[in-house]
Prior knowledge:
There is one protein chain. The protein is of the alpha/beta class. The chain folds into three domains: 8-66, Arc Repressor Mutant, subunit A (Orthogonal Bundle); 84-165 and 271-299, D-Maltodextrin-Binding Protein, domain 2; 167-270, D-Maltodextrin-Binding Protein, domain 2, CATH 3.40.190.290. The chain has helices at 8-20, 23-30, 34-48, 64-85, 87-91, 104-109, 111-121, 134-142, 204-212, 229-237, 284-299, and strands spanning 53-55, 60-62, 96-102, 125-131, 148-151, 160-174, 186-187, 196-199, 222-226, 243-246, 259-264, 269-277. The strands form three sheets. Strands 3, 4, 5, 6, 7, 10, 11 and 12 form an eight-stranded mixed β-sheet that branches. It has a two-stranded antiparallel sheet with strand order 1-2. Strand 1 (53-55) and strand 2 form a beta hairpin. The N and C termini lie far apart (57 Å). One of its GO terms (molecular function) is DNA-binding transcription factor activity. It comes from Undibacterium luofuense. Belongs to the LysR transcriptional regulatory family. Keywords: DNA-binding, Transcription, Transcription regulation.
Amino acid sequence: MGRINFDLQELQAFVAVADRSSFSQAAEDLFLSQPALSRRIDKLEETLGVKLFERTTRRVQLTNVGRVFLANVRTALDELEGAILGVSDLAAHRTGIVTLACVPTAVRYFLPDVLRGFSERFPKIRVRIHDESAQDVLNLVLAGEADFGINFAGSEDPEIDFLPIYREDYVLAMRPEHPLAKRKKLSWKETAKERHISVSRSSGNRSLIDNALAGIEKHPAVFYEVNHVSGILALVEAGMGVAAVPRLSLPQHPGAPVIGVPLVNPPVYRTLGLIRKRGRVTPPAAQTLFSMLQQALITGKGSPS
């Protein structure tokens, strides 16, 4: 390819379409007509000499080359924004942006206090948070689209540095009036006759439980499967059965419609960790937030009571 000849608007158009997976929605976001947006994408593809999107009447999706290019463009745009805001300010942690990927549990219980302190110290630094599933968080960190992550997955990935910070036990979720609700703890064998609700077999939560129960003679029977823990809790609240869930997924307020009893024999738990792509240099502002989270979570200041 010869001299690079495209402008910032074309890159912004590309990111908008990639984020929305839709030309019409991206055009609305950018206050453009759809033909004008299409011309920008066409020009960018022509300049690069590659197709960035596969387009059908039903959907728009990135090509393999487009996915790689997207990660690079996001990085370039963030770096450009930092340069515009001022190199000296960015180096001094006075302006900039940090991109963090984390599971929803972290957003609810671990992030608020630390982000509040971070914002008080560095009020002009913006934080972009991707609250996604464990696998999506891992993928964002591996792709370089997030500076670091808070996740339950990644400890066995050779490309990931995993710093464990919190251990979360699994409990049996049920309605407060359930006959087992007054128990202090329950063995898995004691739950075998209950109607269990579970996430699908593709879920990391399901794999963790199945592996832990591999040596149990009689497994609990799963009567209902859903894709997310929030769906499990909705069915438990409706009285459809019980479910093994991470403790922090339960509502924490008094009088909650779902309660949890610790599970033993065997106990099942998952470990939350700060994750970074191995060998990747963390930008200064992101490193500061990473260190603050590490300190707060290890000392318990950022953990749920």
